[in-house]
Specification:
- There is one protein chain.
- The protein has about 200 residues and is of the alpha+beta class.
- The protein has one domain: MM3350-like (Structural Genomics Hypothetical 15.5 Kd Protein In mrcA-pckA Intergenic Region, Chain A).
- The protein is about 30% helix and about 25% strand.
- It is built from six helices and eight strands.
- An eight-stranded mixed β-sheet has the order 5-4-3-6-7-1-2-8, covered by helices on one side.
- The longest helix is centred in the last third of the chain and has 13 residues.
- It starts with 5 loop residues before the first strand and ends with a helix.
Length: about 200
């Protein structure tokens, strides 16, 4: 990848239907740790759990300690070493080399939110844009600590059902309305600009 280029990424939250996704533009010199922060904002997470990336079979873990992660390592391991490297030490342009390249971002080692990230394009810098920027997306990400995919869909089932003690308790736990179709790209970009 040439220096000074922009990378267009599509981020999909695995196994969601309809798919929860975002499309973002980031600079090639963006560090993996910065990409983590960008994903947190774009998806709507609260950045309160551990994370890791897997790129070309290599783990890039927040603490450089893959042993912290308690998931099924076969879900992550495809090739290469399970030695973990810090995401502070690598930029995207060092690791992303071609379009259609895919990699994984896992957030919250309890709920295990798997994000599949696709490298869609390399673009020239647009002087009229402030990077990073979100250029598309659909659906709201699940609430933090809702119990992974199973807990998320159980929550949606309860919210769609009749009023009752279970629904009242869930609404109290959520502490605010939850609309699974909600996605405010302008609000996302306001937060991304503050990050940038």
């Amino acid at each position: 990848m040439e220096e000074g280029k922009i990378i267009q990424l599509k981020i999909k939250l695995r196994s969601t239907s309809p798919t929860i996704w975002r499309r973002i533009l980031v600079q090639g010199h963006t560090a993996l740790f910065e990409l983590h922060e960008i994903i947190q904002i774009a998806m709507g997470w609260q950045n309160c759990h551990l994370f890791l990336f897997q790129i070309k079979g290599q783990i890039y873990d927040e603490h450089g300690d893959f042993d912290i992660w308690m998931g099924d390592e076969e879900d992550v391991k495809q090739e290469g070493s399970l030695e973990a490297f810090s995401p502070l030490d690598f930029s995207l342009e060092e690791l992303i080399t071609e379009t259609k390249q895919k990699f994984i971002y896992i957030y919250d080692f309890g709920d295990n939110w798997y994000h599949e990230i696709l490298v869609e394009k390399f673009l020239p810098i647009d002087p009229d844009l402030n990077y990073p920027v979100c250029i598309g997306g659909k659906m709201q990400c699940p609430p933090e600590d809702c119990g992974g995919l199973y807990g998320f869909y159980e929550m949606l089932y309860i919210l769609e059902g009749k009023e009752g003690r279970e629904k009242a308790a869930l609404l109290k736990w959520l502490n605010k309305p939850y609309d699974p179709k909600y996605f405010d790209i302008e609000k996302v970009n306001e937060h991304l600009q503050a990050l940038g």
